[in-house]
Amino acid sequence: MQCPKCGGRGMCYATKPEGTVKQRYRKCRICDHRFTTWEEIDERAVREYEAKPKALTHDLFGQVEGKGKDG
Q: Please, is 58 exposed, middle or buried when counting C-beta atoms within 10 Å of its C-beta (0-12, 13-18, 19+)?
């Protein structure tokens, strides 16, 4: 979260639940400006991704051992 005063990076030092909203108290690491943000949970469904099937891998040690026995 960017500081509204200087644009630096703010850190959260406290959180307070306010019903369905969370109030976060933040402080800028550069200029020490304190500010408050409110966060609300988005109830939309998250897209699901299908896992790609893993490619078959050859056993390299088995190939090396197999060649050594034959030749």
A: exposed
